[in-house]
Design brief:
- The protein is built from 22 helices and 10 strands.
- By secondary structure, it is of the alpha/beta class.
- It has 2 domains: 186 residues, NADH Oxidase; 274 residues, Rossmann fold, CATH 3.40.50.
- The strands form 2 sheets. Strands 7-6-5-8-9-10 form a 6-stranded parallel β-sheet, with helices on both faces.
- Strand 9, helix 19 and strand 10 form a beta-alpha-beta unit.
- Its EC number is 2.4.2.21.
- Pathway: Nucleoside biosynthesis; alpha-ribazole biosynthesis; alpha-ribazole from 5,6-dimethylbenzimidazole: step 1/2.
- InterPro entries: BluB (IPR012825), Nict_dMeBzImd_PRibTrfase (IPR003200), Nict_dMeBzImd_PRibTrfase_bact (IPR017846), Nict_dMeBzImd_PRibTrfase_N (IPR023195), Nict_dMeBzImd_PRibTrfase_sf (IPR036087), Nitroreductase (IPR029479), Nitroreductase-like (IPR000415).
Length: 559
């Protein structure tokens, strides 16, 4: 077969193979064709793994069958479900050769031409390689089938693939057992018809994207309810205790009742939301951990192995994980809220971290997430975060918004020491010196912001609008609150600052906001752990207000 058009038309996703062996020279020629595929920025990131072992093929087949069962349940249409069951995939064990095509994510640790707009360009290069291999095999009289219905996490584990290698899928190679009447198999089995011609439309005009103008309130006026406040204070003071003797618990009880606008407040369906994203500034050595730890920790959250999982389970708090902009493609079946803006921000040392449109998207997505949680009946939401490099982002934003020198806003983050701490300070100082943008909030956020930080700020604003109790974790979350409070200062009445972290700038930021944290346990983990640990104290405040006897009901003489 030599006519290019014939090769393209006959390229099929092969599902059944003969037992004929595939000569090594056929595989080598196909892989060379893959190697000739476009490679963004000449990263040469595509990797190949050959599988001939029957034992390995059987293990992959089992993975497929397990996941295929879950896929079958995704349709409620009985006829479609029955047809889906008929689509057997014997090719994994039938095909003489198994091939894994993947890409090396670690190439993104260095500056790469072509990945500035989208890190996914590296993956797209590998897809081009897969297509070249397909066409080469077709031209040589062989076929290939793409198996994507897999749990990729387990797939990587059983094959012991390196952490930095991301597979596109498992590919079966051999002699096709049928030509499927020269049409796609799914079309032959009446699953779906492929359109006769490509779908193409011409774009003839530009549409303007409207960015909301955030009006920063200069007034910090909170609506007062004198009659309600008086009744509430009387209820607190009438409990069988000296006035004020429960200290912070009395303050919290007053705040909880005020937020919920009832003398008998009940915290319902508490939810801690952890927003995760990557930061371009992390590529400059400001953290002790590589950027990929963000992705690893999100996986840990999803598997229930992190500190926040333990504390939420202990206190019966629902945990929600948000991908706000992690430099990774998580499986679509992961128990994850997908709010990805991009695969990490750009490095604000040289260029804006994001566009103003992306800032708006962050606010919108953060608000939408919290709105949906509020609709479940939740009236208490905690905010947590995960993102290597985000203390640097928070430090710069704190310095800009408070006018504190950057040196007073920089801490150890994940634990950087001595020389590395000085390096971190110098890099952030240089980034601020390089900034020549406007002094308005949107301009500053677009240049120095983080996806998860701005989404948290948007979420906090939505929580206030929904009369929810807002639990603020550590330094990064408090920086998000600082942003939210610039847009609506009244948000402060709903906010509970759960702890003062070991990050030195956190104390100064709490002081700047004129707020008092509940705990001081030298925490610096993030993840919303401070919210989960402080939660029982909120429940104690609720309990004493609702259940503790009054002097009158107990028949005890007041002072």
């Amino acid at each position: 077969m030599s006519n290019l058009e014939d090769i393209l038309k006959s390229r099929r996703d092969t599902r059944h193979f003969t037992t004929d062996e595939v000569p090594d020279e056929v595989i080598q020629k196909a892989l060379q064709a893959g190697h000739w595929a476009p490679s963004v920025g000449l990263t040469d990131a595509t990797r190949y793994y050959i599988i001939k072992s029957d034992e390995v093929k059987t293990s992959i087949k089992k993975l497929f069958l397990d996941y295929n069962k879950k896929a079958e349940e995704l349709t409620d249409n009985p006829e479609q479900k029955e047809l889906y069951r008929s689509l057997k995939l014997e090719a994994i064990e039938e095909a003489p050769i198994g091939l894994i095509i993947g890409y090396d994510r670690s190439v993104l640790n260095q500056f790469t031409i072509g990945t500035i707009g989208s890190n996914e360009a590296v993956k797209f290069s590998s897809v081009c390689a897969a297509q070249n291999i397909w066409l080469s095999l077709t031209e040589q009289g062989y076929g290939m089938g793409w198996v994507s219905i897999l749990n990729y996490y387990q797939f990587k584990k059983i094959l012991d693939l390196p952490e930095n290698i991301e597979p596109l899928g498992y590919f079966c190679i051999g002699k096709p057992a049928t030509n499927y009447n020269n049409q796609p198999m799914l079309q032959q089995l009446h699953w779906k018809q492929k359109s006769e011609a490509p779908i193409c439309a011409e774009i003839t005009e530009i549409h303007q994207i409207n960015i909301s103008d955030f009006e920063v309130n200069s007034k910090n006026e909170i609506e007062t309810k004198p009659d309600f406040n008086k009744l509430l204070q009387e209820k607190i003071d009438s409990k069988t205790k000296p006035v004020g003797s429960l200290g912070t618990l009395e303050t919290l009880a007053f705040q909880i009742a005020s937020v919920f606008e009832t003398l008998n407040p009940k915290i319902a369906k508490p939810n801690i939301v952890v927003f995760a994203a990557d930061h371009g500034i992390a590529n400059h050595g400001v953290s002790d951990y590589p950027q990929d730890v963000t992705r690893q920790m999100v996986t840990n959250f999803l598997e229930g192995g992190a500190a926040i999982n333990v504390f939420c389970k202990q206190n019966n708090i629902k945990l929600s994980i948000v991908d706000a902009g992690v430099n990774y493609d998580f499986p679509t079946n992961a128990d994850l809220i997908d709010a990805k803006i991009a695969k990490g921000t750009q490095s604000f040392l040289h260029v804006p971290a994001m566009s103003e449109t992306e800032v708006q998207l962050c606010f919108d997505k953060g608000k939408d997430i919290v709105q949906r949680i509020a609709k479940t009946g939740s009236n208490c939401i905690g905010f947590g975060e995960m993102g290597i490099g985000n203390t640097s982002t928070a430090s710069v934003l704190m310095s800009l918004l408070t006018d504190y020198p950057i040196e007073e806003c920089v801490g150890r983050g994940t634990g950087v020491e001595n020389e590395k701490l000085i390096l971190k300070q110098n890099i952030l100082k240089k980034a601020l010196e390089n900034y020549s943008g406007q002094a308005d909030l949107i301009s500053q956020l677009s240049y120095f912001g983080g996806f998860e930080i701005i989404q948290m700020a948007g979420g906090m604003l939505a929580a206030f609008e929904n009369k929810m109790l807002i639990l603020v974790d550590g330094f990064i979350c408090t920086t998000a609150f600082l942003i939210a409070s610039r847009i609506n200062p009244n948000i402060k009445q709903n906010a509970v600052f759960c702890h003062c972290s070991a990050e030195k700038a956190h104390f100064k930021l709490l002081e700047y906001l004129d707020v008092k944290p509940i705990l001081n346990l030298d925490l610096r983990l993030g993840e919303g752990t401070g919210c989960a640990i402080a939660f029982p104290i909120l429940k104690s405040a609720e309990a004493f207000l609702n259940e503790m006897a009054s002097f009158e009901s107990a028949g005890i003489t007041r002072k």
